[in-house]
């Protein structure tokens, strides 16, 4: 039989420990800071201690919660649950001293807690400083428990009311270090779990077949943890695959359907008309010997076979890259920003059945500004169907109706919130409504319709988002003119809206608690396992080089890279131009916050220092 080991700290009269003791499969270790002589004089303490010992519990005195490993042998250090109810430094200690106590306690707990263990901390109303506190104290006047715990690698995974009246025999004591009760009305129990560590990504080589030969390239650092995750593969439980499969099954009832499942190259070559170069992840290849991982780590990769071009470039009048001399380039490629060119190539080769709905899907890559719904990588699902000229409108209507029915069906299995999906013509679609997905698609070619999805304000989303687009094109095929209808869907955005996932980064988390919520073929409302993550704000101001256009997308991409996607917002808060010299200064405010990992103030400070260094080097700005 598996026995849960439970550690209780800071017991005042051991009445809470006594209420837990005796539960089947639980071994209780109850401790307090004072000596046995000091505690025994408190009301009911001696009785609780006697009951604990009779039931096989361990009772340990004079235990310092900041040095826990010192009190237990190595084989007895691992606890499944640690309780610390109403911690306090004693007497009239202020919030700063109590924060320090909690900080040391969390670091100490990390040394004696199992990997899947929990830390329960009960605090009086308002002390924690989270939105769960009602009323909520000002941040500086709270114990800032989530930020303090993050410093030791813990995230807040649950919070609920501490109901003293439901705990048999429990009586709180210890008001100002005396044997007196204190008010626990509105108190909260905060449940912490271990966070995945912040990732450190080594340089990564991706090997693919291109033009009948094997080539390698260095993956842009911001994409290292996303380039080859296999979310759409057969053995995947990821919600983007579930949505793709259910959409395919629904549409196959209305159209002859063919999945184009052969491997589509990650790299594309040639111009994409109208697409700004700053939105592209450029890759440079050389047909030379692949360097070793050690050589890459030593920074030799860019000089040997491959390179990811971020900033070493000039552009022509159309915004296309002219690589500078000395970069040893043979050909220019970029990570595919869309599946549309592949569909067009298939059509032009004639490998296409008129009247059949062809389906392509896979990840696409785009540099973009940092917003909650802007993704540097997402899974695109592209539908292509050729019809006789004059029948394209009925085809579009039929396709949209089936897509709407499928999405409604998916959403209803997940939640009862009201869902609206509508088709808007390009002329009626305001520029302010464009999200990043629609804005980029508008660069590729003219869009006839936008597929917009809106969930009622009481649900997971308060406004509408473009989740798909429809465009048409004319081709001369098989000696007759056909109109080809293209419909593109952003599967990641659909997954977020259907399952109530508030942050696109959560789709890419390596924490197993995410995928556990989506067993194969099941879509459910997502429940966050990291509540009220702390956020940290840093400002940066600088002079931009004279006569140069500031590349804001590159600025945001550097922020993504150096922070490991921990920057959630970048706002321009000031713009100043010297009248005498014409020099221009910009000031931006960066907000750092993780959606799934513990992020400490010190870690953010280091990211900010690196960010300042990188923008100075890569964008040639002068820091102020």
TrEMBL record:
SUPFAM superfamilies given for it?
Anticodon-binding domain of PheRS (SSF54991)
**Biological process annotations from GO:** rRNA base methylation; translation
Q: Name one Pfam family in it.
A: BMT5-like
GO molecular-function term, one example from the UniProt record: rRNA (uridine-N3-)-methyltransferase activity
Record keyword Cell division present = no
* Compartments, as annotated in UniProt: Mitochondrion matrix
Q: Organism's domain of life? A: Eukaryota
The answer, when asked if ATP-binding is one of the entry's keywords, is: yes
Q: What is its EC number?
A: 6.1.1.20
Mind telling me which GO cellular component terms the entry cites? mitochondrial matrix
The name this protein goes by in its record? phenylalanine--tRNA ligase
Organism the protein comes from: Eudyptes chrysocome (Western rockhopper penguin)
């Amino acid at each position: 039989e598996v026995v849960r080991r439970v550690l209780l700290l800071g017991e005042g009269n051991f009445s809470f420990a006594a209420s837990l003791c005796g539960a089947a499969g639980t071994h209780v270790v109850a401790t307090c800071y004072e000596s046995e002589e000091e505690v025994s004089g408190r009301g009911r303490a001696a009785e609780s201690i006697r009951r604990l010992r009779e039931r096989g519990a361990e009772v340990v005195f004079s235990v310092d919660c900041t040095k826990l490993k010192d009190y237990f042998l190595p084989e007895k250090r691992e606890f499944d649950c640690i309780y610390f109810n109403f911690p306090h430094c004693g007497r009239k200690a202020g919030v700063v001293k109590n924060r320090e106590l909690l900080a040391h306690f969390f670091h100490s707990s990390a040394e004696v807690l199992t990997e899947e263990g929990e830390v329960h901390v009960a605090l009086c109303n308002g002390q924690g400083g989270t939105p769960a506190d009602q009323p909520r104290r000002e941040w500086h006047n709270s114990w800032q428990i989530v930020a303090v715990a993050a410093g030791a690698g813990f995230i807040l995974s649950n919070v609920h009311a501490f109901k003293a009246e439901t705990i048999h025999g429990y009586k709180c004591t210890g008001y100002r270090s005396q044997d007196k009760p204190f008010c626990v009305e509105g108190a909260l129990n905060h449940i912490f779990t271990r966070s995945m560590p912040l990732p450190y990504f080594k340089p990564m080589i991706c090997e693919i077949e291109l033009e009948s030969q094997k080539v390698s390239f260095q993956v842009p650092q911001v994409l290292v943890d996303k380039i080859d995750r296999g979310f759409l593969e057969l053995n995947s439980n990821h919600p983007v695959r579930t949505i793709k499969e259910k959409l395919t099954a629904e549409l196959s009832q209305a159209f002859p359907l063919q999945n184009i499942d052969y491997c589509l190259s990650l790299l594309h070559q040639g111009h994409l008309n109208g697409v700004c170069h700053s939105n592209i992840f450029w890759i440079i290849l050389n047909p030379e010997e692949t360097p070793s991982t050690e050589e890459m780590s030593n920074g030799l990769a860019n000089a040997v076979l491959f390179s990811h071009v971020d900033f070493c470039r000039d552009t022509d009048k159309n915004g296309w890259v002219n690589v500078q001399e000395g970069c040893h380039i043979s050909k220019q490629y970029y990570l595919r920003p869309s599946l549309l060119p592949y569909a067009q190539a298939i059509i032009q080769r004639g490998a296409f059945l008129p009247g059949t709905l062809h389906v392509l899907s896979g990840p696409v890559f785009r540099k973009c500004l940092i917003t909650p719904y802007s993704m540097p990588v997402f899974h695109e699902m592209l539908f292509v169907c050729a019809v006789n000229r004059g029948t394209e409108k009925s085809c579009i209507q039929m396709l949209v109706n089936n897509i709407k029915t499928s999405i409604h069906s998916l959403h209803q299995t997940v939640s009862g919130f009201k869902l609206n999906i509508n088709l808007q013509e390009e002329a009626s679609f305001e520029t302010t409504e464009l999200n990043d997905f629609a804005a980029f698609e508008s660069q590729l070619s003219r869009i006839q319709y936008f597929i917009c999805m809106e969930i009622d304000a009481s649900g997971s989303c308060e406004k509408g988002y473009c989740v798909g687009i429809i465009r048409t094109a004319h081709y001369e095929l098989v000696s007759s003119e056909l109109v080809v209808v293209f419909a593109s869907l952003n599967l990641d955005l659909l997954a977020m809206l259907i399952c109530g996932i508030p942050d696109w980064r959560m789709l890419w988390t390596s924490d197993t608690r995410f995928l556990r919520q989506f067993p194969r073929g099941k879509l459910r409302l997502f429940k966050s396992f990291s509540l009220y993550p702390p956020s940290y704000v840093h400002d940066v101001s600088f002079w931009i080089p004279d006569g140069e256009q500031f590349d804001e997308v590159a600025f945001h991409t550097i922020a993504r890279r150096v922070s490991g996607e921990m920057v959630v917002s970048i706002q321009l808060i000031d713009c100043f131009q010297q009248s005498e010299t014409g020099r221009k200064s910009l000031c931006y405010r960066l907000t750092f916050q993780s959606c799934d990992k513990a992020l400490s103030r010190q870690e953010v400070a280091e990211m900010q220092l690196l960010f300042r260094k990188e923008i100075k080097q890569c964008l040639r700005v002068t820091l102020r």
